[in-house]
Amino acid sequence: MTAAGSPPFPPASDSPDGGHLAATLVEPLPIPFYLLVEPMVSGKQVLDVAAGVGGPGPECLRRAGAAEVICCAPAGPSLPVPDAGVDIVLCGLPVIRSDADRGAWMAEIRRVLRPGGFCVLRLAAAALRDDAQAGAGMRTACMDLLLAYFATVDIVEETRFGGVSFHVPGTDDLAVNESLTRLTGASEHLVAFCADGTERSWNLTESLLIPTEAGAPAGAAGVSAAELAAWQGEVARLEARCADLSREREDAREGGMTLQDRADRLERTVAVLRRDVERFLRQISDDAAARELLALEREEMQRILSAATQQAADASREVERRQIALRTLEKEVVRLRAARGGAGGPTGKP
Q: DSSP per residue over 221-233, as a string?
């Protein structure tokens, strides 16, 4: 089957040695596979190569913003897409034993990928057990296999879990009891992200835990429409929460910028005040020096005044002493005159 408007499948190509390649049906892709790649398809053209064309998986990709999702389920390595026609190829790669078949599948996937695009392959562990039993681990065997065709490869393991989940009291949140969660068996599939170039166009999350539908057997790929809607609602809630956090972050960033502007203005004000304080301190220091100089000059004037006062007192005493001596001389003159007048008698002269 193909998507509406897709061209019919061309016949499977021949192997390099001239033999016809065996028809190998691709495997179905479970809902967790689509949810894993859902964040990476926005604006991309996606080719979904898997058994069971249509269903909730491709619809998840369309809701995630994929520009176009082309679905097909070929019976061999021939894809209904022109060269470099899509950005992403999703493929439930069948169990391939022949190197010629494997090379044809990889060449066909690389043919339809655009430069910078990548493919996500889901490989059954059964296809790798022969290589793994030869000495390499399952992941190493998968990596060695794909590095022969792609420059960059990342491996993700599909792991089954058995555990206990419960609703948190007082909320609608579903929690998983990690202490009661255990691996329920060996991985049956590996998921490989592959690209021709050295740059990774994908972004892998730390983990993706997807519960299966209640009552479904282990490993079942089906998921009910109600469960898918619930997951879509949870994704929408988380996206809204992320948007709220982004707005809060922007508000906090704007608040931080406002506080930084205020801090810069205060810093400039503090710098001006610091310069004024330094100027006032220099002025005070200069005034103190001037006062000290005036104090020295006053002390010197006081010493000069004291010396002048002492000299004035000494001069006053000298004047007084001389006045006393003058009065004594005057008395002596009077006495002498009197004595002279007594000795010669009255002469009539004064």
A: ----HHHHHHHHH
Give mean pLDDT in consecutive 10-residue pieces for the chain, a chain of 350 residues: 33 39 70 87 93 79 93 87 94 81 91 94 78 64 89 84 64 64 69 90 68 40 61 76 86 91 92 91 90 90 91 91 91 89 56
DSSP string covering 17-68: TSPBPPP-PPPP--HHHHHHHGGG-TT-EEEEE-SS-SSHHHHHHHHTT-SE
Q: Where are the alpha helices (DSSP H) in the chain?
A: 31-37, 56-63, 99-112, 129-133, 138-147, 225-344
**What is the topology classification, in CATH, of domain 1-161+180-207?**
Rossmann fold (3.40.50)
**Domain extents for the chain?**
1-161+180-207
Contacting residues for 82 by C-beta, under 8 A, at least 6 apart? 112
Considering only CA atoms, which of 155, 144, 145 is closest in space to residue 105?
A: 145
